[in-house]
Amino acid sequence: MPSALFSPFPLRGVTLPNRIVVSPMCQYVAEDGSATDWHLMHLGQLAMGAAGLLFTEATAVSAEGRITHGCLGLYSDANEAALGRVVQFCRRHGVAVLGIQLAHAGRKGSARTPLAGGTALAEGERPWTTLAPSALPYGPGWHTPQAMGAAELAAVKGQFTEAAMRAARLGFDLVELHMAHGYLLHQFLSPISNRRDDQYGGASESRMRYPLEVFESVRAALPPGTALGVRVSATDWVEGGWTPAETVALAKRLKALGCDFVDVSSGGLDPRQKVPLGPGYQVPFAAQVKRESGIPTMAVGLITEAEQAEGIVVAGDADLVALGRAIMDDPRWAWRAAAALGADTPYASQYVRAHPKFWPGARRKAA
Ligand SMILES: Cc1cc2nc3c(=O)[nH]c(=O)nc-3n(C[C@H](O)[C@H](O)[C@H](O)COP(=O)(O)O)c2cc1C
User: Fold this and answer.
1) For the CA of 303, the nearest atom of ligand 1
2) Looking at the domain assignment, is residue 331 inside a domain?
3) Each residue of 7-45: b (16+ CB within 10 Å) or e?
């Protein structure tokens, strides 16, 4: 039986050569939102690691939409030029389809990097005013955000759209909108962070309205062949929060608007969350969204083994399998998965002599 993980998957105008995805991973070393040599090295090496799709880290649509001062952005010509250099390298030397995750941190912005504690910036650390659906801080010690009025709603939607146009200009094959992990669009979805009493708050349908409006605007701005999906948190893992049933309803609405896939994660909205971590712990949510809405899904979270990833695709739980830390640990994870599953996968020409077909050492290593 040929490997399901190494079978191609078409998404709108692009076909992923296999089902392995490098999940978005913040690096916190951008300068005024612009990619640096670190990004060239980081994304460059991952692009040739043979995953079918490589995502940039969460890329902010405005300076205020960043989580930290070091977050990547795509809101200025300088940002576009800096990321363009990285994209060109990945295209020239890599084998992965390139995707960008566009994000706005909302009330979780103006923060220190995780290494510096991940807490809110203090006076003297150039904090900024954050935006959110309601003026409710993320948790104790966090900035109280400004509740978005009509002007801010229009401006942020415009920023997502403008950033998507820049991404298309840079030649990204695929765009993912970040509606997960407690960032701005998730803040609209969850009844914990969204206490608005206008058409964007209240019932589930109304809480979905702004994220769906942003999706529609971005879809209309992208070339028809560019795939567009979203990352969601299927649950807040907090009593009274956003639920898997609401996630399915959102997926159905997105599908009707031309969404190509849903990348199913969880949590991040409320520090009170209790997450039952374990191998593949979020896969059942991806399976539920796929089964009940019919949209292609991407599973993520503690997927580390080739056979585990293969099993998810074979079972039909998800169409795509995203890995974060396992690929940071081993950027050639897909090479080894191919060998383990008896599949073949392209190598960058410069590295082809390490291919198991040409290198006897590969067999000795596997033994
Ligand atoms: C260093 C690091 C940075 C991350 N940054 C992002 C991000 O920018 N956007 C996002 O949606 N998730 C982000 N995540 C979450 C990962 O994409 C992924 O969902 C999570 O790590 C679980 O997958 P894993 O168990 O394979 O690592 C990050 C995770 C790590 C470890």
Assistant:
1) 26
2) yes
3) eebebbebebbbbbbbbbbbbbbbeebbbbeebbebbbe
